[in-house]
Model the fold of this input.
Amino acid sequence: MFVPERVIFEQQALDYPMGDRLYKEFRRQGLELDFTSSHNQVRGIPGKNRKEKFFRAKCTLVVGVRRSKEFTTCRPSAHYQLPLCTGCPGLCEYCYLLTNLSGSSYIRIYVNLEEILERAADYIRNRLPETTIFEGAATSDPLAVEGYGGSLARAIEFFAGQPHGRFRFVTKFGDVDSLLPLQHRKATRFRFSVNTEAVIHYFEHGTPPLAARLDAARKVAEAGYPLGFMIAPIVAAEGPASEQYQGAYDPRFWQQDYGTLFEDLASFSGVADLTLELITHRFTARAKCAIQELFPHTQLPLEESERRFKWGQFGYGKYVFNPELQQQVKAFLLSALSVHLPHAHLEYFV
Done:
């Protein structure tokens, strides 16, 4: 579980039972406490420059009230985001939150959980008789802070009582024990973000190793939750091993690395209703600048000349795999999927 260096409260958060409880608990622990007028405008995080402030912010927990009544859409994985929290204590070099939350990389939890769930019920009613799906980890990893707010547990119980509502979230963390005995009624899909041992070692700092994630996934499957795996980003490069990567991470060994990963996942072949999501590595010009500023020794493959530029659905461009590499990766992973997880459902490959 994430352990913060400091905790900052919105004053209004103390008007809610969760906020009052957390304030008393953190004060009892002797943590550094402070107040802010808005969880969107937190000032005073220490650091001489943006890099220092970023890493210190990653050690900061903000307890606030989410005031917006609107939920953001969340394609392709769901209809809407369910805003239980924002931010993640992990330090994954490729994470899109480096740019989306670049000025507010602290971790936020929201104390008005019942109001958020009431709004989710409105969205469900408005789409009847269709089923509405909510994503709980679009801008966060809620499992990392579950020990403080219990928001996942409450959301799981809420959706268990919603015949036309479904909940899903993805995590890299493994503290699942508190969620195992819940009456989920299979309305929540528990997904784990996994990758090769090399990608985790070189790029997913501050997160559990693959073995810990798979152990947690086994517990979740045994508890009867619908289970899924997200492999993202799939890091690959064309050609034979290059001197450019000698003694370091080499993305040209991607077939060997992802072949081993699917061998590890084969133990889940008997899990019913297993889903897979596959996302290839891509980056924007803005993201590259942020990555190189925050992780100046990064070994991520960020050479634009080796990529294809593609306009995204939100009006900005990104660098994606060349068509030849994209097809090679897709064919390889679909073959591995058919061999090691033949009954799993592939939700998308992008």
In short: The chain has a mean pLDDT of 93. The longest strand covers residues 227-234.
